[in-house]
Amino acid sequence: MATATALPALVKAIHGLTFALLHLAAMDIIAQSDPDRLAASAQTNYGTGALGIASAIMAIASGYLYGWFGLHAFWAMAALCAIAVPLMGGLSTRSTA
What we know:
Layout: H1 7-33, H2 39-69, H3 74-84
């Protein structure tokens, strides 16, 4: 029988899995779209921009949102995810250039 104390561990495991899938997808997109000579630069830009700067900005923003709205700040995160869904359609097309 599952208990409520197991939920945080389950959430962390799912978060780890989804992050790993995101990272692998990003590396695949970089490998497919950038020339080999620019792969390291593209990965550095991805790591700095998408993982570093964006995470820092969102962490700061989420702190303010949580302070203002409490648990209802979750809906702001859900809205950001909903905004990203239409953008995913362009990821399936591969450039031949």
